[in-house]
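Feature request disguised as a bug report, sorry. It would help if multi-protein outputs had a clear separator. Right now it looks like this:
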Amino acid sequence: MREASQVTEKKFVDFSFKSDDGLGSLYRFPKEIRNIIYGFVVPLVTASTHDDNPAIDDDLVRALMAFPLLKTSKQLCVEFLEVFIRSIELEEVTQLVYSCQARHSLEVLLAYVGRRIHVMLLKQLGCKIETDYFDVWFCTVELEVDLVFLLPRQIKRLWMLHEKYSVTSDKLYIEMTYFEPAELIASLACTSRTIRSSTLIHLFCTTYWLHKFDIITAKISLSNRSASTQAMNDMVSSAGAQIDEYRVSKMRDLQRNCTPAESILLESMLNDEVAPFWDQRCVPRLVRLHATVIDTATEVWVAMEEQYNVHHLFDLAESWLDLD
């Protein structure tokens, strides 16, 4: 039997800067194997964010900048960052109501990471512009003014990142997000002609008609107009399917509070008022606005590419003259 004094305590694995080579117990593996290990860790880290949202959190960026780098293993940080930054999609969220406010989360984060590794081969890089669907319906002119002001600025920022970090055009995007039309549909339903002129007055309350819609969203590829148009069509189809599901679920839910005669009125209202309102009035406005964004984004990007090509040709010509 071994004496108590001879029992060896299990060694604690230290991944901090105190470890001799800064790699902790991973020093036993070649870098290729360490990269595989990091690859398993990346999904765990990204999945821990709220709602699996890839968007950059300004508070997290500030906290990252304030964290004392020397308290962690430099080598471990560098190797993991290298795998992490090239495995995820970086996206910055911009609210239209703050369109005059400069936000540079993408630049700050990439500049910080760039101090440790050579940033390249990013998976995707984009800006998400969020707006409420109510604005599409009630504030279309103001919304277009905001977009005309904001879009070129965001695209120029993406162009600078495209040049600085060699992110190819096909990996750059603008994502337009139109928050769910629940309140718009609910306000239409509870104030419809059928409700006002029938015995369904007990349903004259917005809360009866609220429904959880998925957020309506579509990516705009800066270098591929046809892909952007297809994404818009898919967005409209998805929204239409949600409206159909809304009609079925609301019919099922509200029939419990209706007589058979009232159920017929309810079905008529959902089919003859709610659905046409969405198909004939809401969708055209949404498509018109989104198509404008596609055209503006594509035209600005193409103009910048053409300007770059012209400058590049002049640079080549000057280099040839210097050789002569």
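(second protein starts here, but nothing in the output says so)
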Amino acid sequence: MEEMETRLCAALLLTFSCEHGMWCRHCKQDVPAVAPATNGAVHCARCHGPLDQPAFAKSVSDSGVGLDQESQRVVDPHALLQASDSGYRHDEIRRAIRGAQRRASAAPRMLRFDPPEPLVEQKRVEPRDPASPNTRVDQPVRENHRPTQWVAWALALTGAMTLGAGVGLMFWSLTEARPELWEWGIGATLTGQGVMIIGLVQLLAGLWNSSRSANQTLRGVQQELRRLGRTTESLLGANAPTAASFYADLARGASPEMLLANLKGQVDALSSHVARD
């Protein structure tokens, strides 16, 4: 009779394992069970180790199941490590450790908010210094070139007048037959030519310096215009409703009405831009 009950229990366990499978603590997975004919124990079909026989369902009392006590259960890692005979406890420890690591790594990212980069760039606009030395660079250069130009013009005019006087003396000596005037005319002509050449060279040097200073002045004006354009764009971007200002208001905790007004301004600006295109 006892042998019949043992075989019946083994048949029931086999039927249960075929339908649902049984947990093997050595293989760490659900495996089919095998029951030898000698005894009623159930073994794993892979590693041939003994399997834990599941407890069959029992009748539930009228008082119900203590769900509050079950939900308030706290997993103690040290107690689980000390009682590490079951594979279920090892898996529960691993899941608890992985969940704690996942929550610890995700917590700072959830609390962090980085504003967009255009907002930082707009806040870094430096004020323009009105007393910049680059705006008045050409004035000392012009003042230094004025005396040089006057001297050059004086030398050129003096050389031209001396050259004219020498040519007149030479013509007079030829027409009036006065050879003593020929020597004076040649000397005056040569001296006038030299003085006039020196004056013309100084005039050319002054013109070259003036053109160089004018080029430097034009470059400075171009740089000032570029800086003025960048400053104007930054001021317009700071005052106009943009995505950067929207994110700044959102990070500051502005009211919903302000955020809606910002979005409406962005839509109006986009519609006007599309209409212009």
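Even a blank line would do. Unrelated, but nice: The beta strands are 22-24, 29-31, 33-34, 43-44.
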